[in-house]
Design a protein that fits this description.
Number of helices: 4
Largest sheet: 2 strands, parallel
Mean pLDDT: 79
Order of helices and strands: HEHEHEEH
Distance between the termini: 34 Å
Low-confidence stretches: none
Helix content: 25-40%
Number of domains: 2
Oligomer: single chain
Radius of gyration: 19 Å
Structural class: alpha+beta
Strand content: 5-15%
Shape: globular
Number of strands: 4
Length: 170
């Protein structure tokens, strides 16, 4: 019940969806009440919506249970949304270590989040991540705009909908 599978308790493993199978794996791990939960790319094979729900479930379980979680992921946003500390491994060694000192719940579009993402992507060698220039300094920078604040002449009007990973569009 804790992972939302009570109604599927009698189902055969082959009949479970990808998200249900991940939740079943999580339930098997939690039944022993571990002090440390190891999650190796647990959301990688899930579709976007199921991935978001699974991330929320892991965050809720972590807060409720209080156990430590070691999450291995290649998704920078996922790491910053879920982790309190991010380590980047290179050639089997820790190449970069940073704490994620952002309040929860975290929003991908918040200034602190985008700055931290930019620093992490730069550390990973993604030069296009760029940071906004310092005030009064001219040159190339980084900008982002919410969809509702942009307009394309001749295009059909569109209204954004709230998205758990990206925050309220208003």
């Amino acid at each position: 019940a804790e992972v939302g599978l009570a109604e599927r308790a009698g189902a055969w493993p082959k009949t479970l969806s990808g998200g249900e199978a991940q939740r079943a794996s999580l339930a098997r791990a939690l039944v022993r009440e571990p002090d440390l939960l190891l999650l190796d790319e647990p959301f990688g094979a899930l579709d976007a919506l199921t991935r978001i729900k699974a991330q929320q479930l892991v965050a809720e379980l972590w807060q409720r249970r209080g156990c430590a979680v070691l999450l291995v992921t290649h998704d920078v946003d996922e790491a910053l949304l879920l982790a309190d500390r991010v380590l980047v491994m290179r050639d089997g060694r820790i190449a970069y270590d940073t704490s994620v000192a952002l309040d929860r719940p975290r929003e991908v579009g918040s200034p602190g989040f985008t700055d931290l993402r930019s620093r992490l992507l730069t550390e990973l060698g993604v030069e296009a991540a760029g940071r906004a220039p310092e005030p009064g300094v001219e040159g190339a920078g980084h900008a982002q705009a919410r969809p509702e604040s942009t307009e394309i002449p001749g295009a059909y009007p569109a209204r954004p909908h709230p998205h758990p990973r990206h925050g309220d569009p208003s």
